Amino acid sequence: MTTLLDIMDRHGRLHANADGIAATPIPGLMFFRVATPSGVTHAIARPLVCLVVQGAKQVTMGTQEYGLGAGDSLLITADVPIVSQITKASHATPYISLVLELDLAIVAELVREMGPALASSADPVRVDPTDGEVAAAALRLLQLLDRPAALPVLQAPLIREMHYWLLAGRHGAAIRRLGWPDGHAQRVARAVALLRAEFARPLPVSRLAEAAGMSPSTFHQHFRAATSLSPLQFQKQLRLIEARRLMAAEGASASTAAFAVGYESVPQFTREYGRLFGVPPVRDARAAREKARAA
User: Which residue, 187, 188, 232, 256, shows the most beta carbons closer than 10 Å to its own?
Assistant: First the structure.
């Protein structure tokens, strides 16, 4: 019988890029197949669930560290800064995981049908064993990759089913907050979408607060509660993460990357880059190029 691991390993071999990321034609769904332990990766994650089926990974948010291995799920219910590292992987048994970005429209629709949730921890990151129903729905969804003619017809109901089992399972109460009509999570999400779309431009807090439908002081409070960062810190991390990608993936110089993401001062960019990543941008870019050549 075909398993989730079988499908992901096979498609990963065929479609994963140099970083081990395999995109799929299913919106919001990708998986990872990585044959060696990785370096540290910085990101501002979107709300998502990650199912690990082989290998192990370490994720840090602030001072909290989470370890997950085969059979575990990582749930992220807010746009938060995380640092991650694959800790167990080899050519014989690569790290393999599935990532599904949560669709807030589907969550909101299901919450209306399923009713209110029980109280739960407000932690935006958590790790738990994967529910059997979630894994089974993921398997049926990935089986469509071998039947492309069925994708337009069946992917939407299967994605909805997977969201249902996430809401019905141990992660449910945390996810349901994302679906509260006009709740704080949805309001902050509108401001986050604006930041992600226009991070290279000056964005005054008043404009972000207006997008969220809050006063500036209330917005600042709820934004930090949801993301662990102030709006300015959030924008700064988006800029630095994109600058790092431009240097590593597109060969941009430090100054070109700095100006492309909205910095007006290269020395300021260099200081803030080193503060976040622990190494100056020129040295970091050189190391990334050397790693790519070795691969």
Answer: 188
**pLDDT score recorded for residue 295:** 57
CB 162 within 8 A of CB 134: yes
Q: What is the mean pLDDT of each run of 10 residues along the chain (295 residues)?
A: 88 90 93 92 92 96 90 91 95 96 91 72 83 94 93 94 91 77 80 94 94 93 90 95 90 93 95 93 83 64
Residue 206 — φ and ψ, nearest 5°? -60, -35
* CA separation for the pair 221, 217 (Å, rounded): 6
Quick check: 214 and 141 in contact, CB under 8 A?
Answer: no
Instruction: Count CB-CB contacts under 10 A for residue 286.
Output: 13
What's the pTM value of the predicted model, to 2 decimals? 0.85
Q: How far is CA 206 from CA 94, 103, 196, 215, 218, in A?
A: 47, 27, 16, 8, 11
d(Cα 284, Cα 292) in Å, to the nearest integer? 12
Identify whether the C-beta of residue 243 lies closer than 8 Å to the C-beta of residue 261.
yes
pLDDT of residue 35: 94
d(CA 110, CA 126): 21
Residue pointed to by tokens 């064993």: 129
Nearest to 35 by CA among 21, 51, 50: 21
Q: Which two tokens stand for residue 251?
A: 């060969």
H or E segment and range at residue 141: helix 132-143
Element spanning 194, H or E: helix 184-198
> Distance (Å, rounded) from C-alpha 126 to C-alpha 119?
15
